[in-house]
Each structure stands twice: as C-alpha cells, then as structure tokens.
Amino acid sequence: MQTFSTRPFEPPVDPGVLRAQVRAFLAEHQPAGDAASRANSWAVADRTFTRALGKAGFIGMIWPKDYGGGGRHPLERYIVLEELLAAGAPVGMHWIADRQGGPLLLRYGTEAQRRDLLPRMAAGELYTCIGMSEPGSGSDLASVRTRGEREGDHWRISGQKVWTTNAHHAHYMIALVRTGERSQRQEGLTQFLIDLKSPGVAVRPIIDLVGGHDFNEVFLENVLVPDAMRVGEEGAGWRQVTAELSLERSGPERYLSSYALLLEFIRVCGDRPAPAAAELIGRLTAELWTLRHMSRSTAAKLAAGEDPALEAAIVKDLGNSFEQALPRMIQAISDVDLASDSAFARALALLLQIAPSFSLRGGTREILRGIIARGLGLR
Ligand SMILES: Cc1cc2nc3c(=O)[nH]c(=O)nc-3n(C[C@H](O)[C@H](O)[C@H](O)COP(=O)(O)OP(=O)(O)OC[C@H]3O[C@@H](n4cnc5c(N)ncnc54)[C@H](O)[C@@H]3O)c2cc1C
Fold it and tell me: Which atom of ligand 1 is nearest to the CA of 362?
C-alpha cells in the first residue's frame, strides 16, 4: 500500500540538540519583529528566509536523500516545525511544498516529477499552492467545475480557482480538475501540477480584512498542461486529495497561530500576574500542552504509514477552537487600548480580526465535525 510514510529514515537525534540547532539558525536568520509580525507566521512568505532554511536542511527533511531531502525522522521534522512556529518565523513561502506538494509527489508522482521538482523544493527555491476551492465549491469540493480535456499528450484546462493562498508567489498550483463526466462527481477528478507562468493563467489578488494579500483568484483559460504534469492516475484525484488532508490538518500550525500573543501576554503580565491573568495563562498552557500531544501522536501515526483522518480532524477542530478563542479570552481580562501602538495591542487587534478564518482554511468546523461523527460511528 502507498502511504505518506517516508521510511526508512534515520533514528532521531536528541531533541535538545535539534532544538538548539534550530534556535541557533533563527538567531542568525529570523527577521527582526514584534509579536504582531510573529502571529500566524505560517501565512507570512519570505523568500530569503525560506532559502536559508532550505540551505540549512530544514525543508523536505523527511524526504529521501536521493531527491534532495534529508532522510530524517518525521518526529525531528515535527520538532523543527514547532520551533519555527513558536518563534513566529516566516515560513509561508515553502509551507505548502514542504507539507503537501513534496509528499504528494513522493506518494503519487512520477520518477521524472520527483527528480525534477523535489530537490528544488527542498532547497527552498520552488513553491506550490493548492488549487482546490472554486466559487461554489468549498466544502462540497467534489462539485469542482474546472475542466480538463485530453488533447494528445496534453490537457486543455479551463476554469477558476479561488482563495488560492500564495498563488502570486508559487511556481506550480496543485489543481483538482474535472476530467470525467460531471455525473461521476468524485470519480471524475484528476490532480495536475499547473505551471503558473503558462499562457492562459491569470492570478488576481484578493485583499483581506487587514489589508493583506495572501490569497488570490486564479483564472485558467485554455491552459495547455503536459500529461507529464498529471499527478497520479486519471480519475484518482478525489482519493489523493482526501488522503492529503491528514497532512494538512494535524500539524502544529493548527494550534499555534495565536501563540505569539500568548507569549506577549505573559511578557506584559510580568513576574507577578494578577490572579485572573495567572489563571488564564495556566489554563491556556495546559490546553496547549494537550493539543501538542495529540498533534504529535497524529504525526507518529502518519510516520508509521497510517492514514489518521479522524485524529487529524479532531486535532484541527480542537486546535482551531483554541487559537481562535485565545485572543478573545486575553482581550476579556486586559484593559488594553486596541488603537494604541504597543506590540501587545497590535498583535491582539490583528488576531481578533483574522482568527475567524482559522476554522475555515483547510476545512470548516462543521465539515470536520461531520468527519468526526462518522469516524466515531455516528451516522
Ligand atoms: C485563510 C484561508 C486560506 C485558504 N487557502 C486556500 C487555498 O490555498 N486553496 C484552496 O483551494 N482553498 C483555500 N481556502 C478555502 C477554504 O478551503 C474554503 O473557504 C473552505 O473549504 C470553505 O468553503 P467555502 O468558503 O466555499 O464555504 P462553504 O462551503 O460555502 O461553507 C459556508 C458555511 O456553510 C457550512 N457548511 C457547508 N456545507 C455544510 C454541510 N454539509 N453541513 C454543515 N455545514 C455546512 C460551512 O461549514 C460554512 O460555515 C482558504 C480559506 C481561508 C479562509
């Protein structure tokens, strides 16, 4: 059976040694910034930082060495991700390639795709984005209408994707495309790597509530994609996409998006926090610790070759609820003026505005709870 496990891998090194290596890397390469710039840092793209990270061997860590990866243990990768996110490092540029693009190619890609793309991804020089959602196709993903017609050794692809994070930085979009009959729904879908520089591709920005440009609309008009850039079998796209979701939903990014604010709150409270603040810090820390254990256990299952879709949905739902509630809970016991220019006020104001999106990206709360209910045997 094909899995996302990258076995065989080297035994893990001492976590303390690895953490010290990541912290030394961050001391040298992390851009200066305060809590506001460190919040939700897996959405912050920084090409220079990503290249340095690639050079240091912290991207594609668990991919085989033959493809430019590190052949490292998955739990070592977990430690590195945790350190990077806890420090608020700008990892958005390569995040999708490291988390999904590379593993997808290792599991379903051709040898030529792996040899061509994986070393550049691991070097922090080639980036991918996810082209699943379309206007009218979000939760009901099987309704995608972007259409691919076979023409000899190419596919002619037309349609529209939306909310495509980092399409303006990425080289390739991993697109879910309808190649079979419309009535077939899940059976008629195929994944392609679409070169975003191809004629017929237009990437248009969507500016979010806080004035940021993370996501885009991507228009595809008669884009010719070589069959060599099809990923996996024709018609197997749904199975592939749903398998990928366990990678997408269980990592530390699903509970650490507001962590920079918690650290700043602890700093602002000082050595002798008021009783209500001390209670809140204790409560949030205990919850964080539990989430961390759940997420790490799910990573261990992925490493063992299992497909923990149910566990991943639970981690994402609980993790998103935590990182979404954290800013509101801190606001409730602080008398901070949100219009003031302190790092604390700016981080809090930013997170209060963007936190609602945490439970939308990667599958909404209602959809996850449906998966959990079915996984628990409730029909
Ligand atoms: C920050 C961010 C980044 C994103 N990045 C990407 C990206 O890079 N690539 C990409 O492809 N997409 C991306 N998305 C899109 C995301 O995957 C979708 O927003 C999400 O799947 C929901 O789809 P929708 O917006 O169409 O909402 P809808 O599916 O229309 O849902 C609207 C509401 O109805 C509820 N609902 C829908 N169906 C049911 C049901 N059966 N039962 C109960 N309730 C239901 C939902 O839970 C939600 O509350 C991103 C979204 C965000 C917010």
Answer: 17
